[in-house]
Amino acid sequence: MQKSSVDDIRARFDEDVERFSSLDTGQESMVDARTLLDRTTEAAAATTPNATHLLDVGCGAGNYSLKLLQHLDDLHVDLVDLSQPMLDRAVDRVSAATDGTVRPFQADIRELSPAPEQYDIIMAAAVLHHLRTEAEWTAVAGKLYEALRPGGAVWVADLVDHSTAPVQDLMWDAYGSYLEDLDGEAYRERVFSYIEQEDTPRPLLEQIDLFQAAGFDDAEILHKNATFGAFSVIKR
Ligand SMILES: C[S@@+](CC[C@H](N)C(=O)[O-])C[C@H]1O[C@@H](n2cnc3c(N)ncnc32)[C@H](O)[C@@H]1O
Description:
Blueprint: H1 6-14, H2 33-47, E1 53-57, H3 63-69, E2 76-81, H4 84-95, E3 102-106, E4 119-125, H5 134-147, E5 148-159, H6 165-183, H7 185-198, H8 204-213, E6 219-225, E7 228-234
Parallel strand pairs: 1-2, 1-4, 2-3, 4-5
Antiparallel strand pairs: 5-7, 6-7
Helix pairs in contact: 2-3, 5-8, 6-7
């Protein structure tokens, strides 16, 4: 199947700002969305309690930045997203929650060229599954590594695949049941169809390997349930 282009993905998210604007639930189509949001941001705050600079890639409407600002005051926040309507919403919400600077960048994460060693925390929630090839992964992981100060970390919460067919089937069945319980069979089909069209997730351990190949040292798995996981990779 021909996967969605970057323009297709931008157009879909331009129309979907409301769905990404709930801090109470997070993005409900993710299994354990609230746990992913809470655990990732709590762990980031605990790991770099003196953080001053945050980069949120694929920030959407800003939920992960906002949640982190409940633990760390007045961060300077750089927001990156393909979608201008998402960025506009994120800037409004995040500016109200910090006295630090808030800078929006409308860009594809593949095109980013951040200055070296400027961030303590990089959030990447539900965005890296849009990368298609290993070369794209390697390039993006390398740029994120460069952009972090020593001691900083990248925090990922995302859709994941599995390496073996039986486990892959089991986990996607579990995700299907979750979606059906949430909003019925038609909803499950709708979500499965846009995942098929738009997303290219990778196994969680493979993602960590790709980050470590780009230079990251330690890694922590924070959560895993069905087809969603969260982890961090740390730059010593
Ligand atoms: C599923 S939403 C997640 C938003 C937010 N991180 C959250 O968890 O609430 C994915 C976001 O990533 C953005 N996005 C997708 N592909 C991107 C890319 N290649 N570069 C930058 N942003 C991208 C979309 O526009 C969308 O706002």
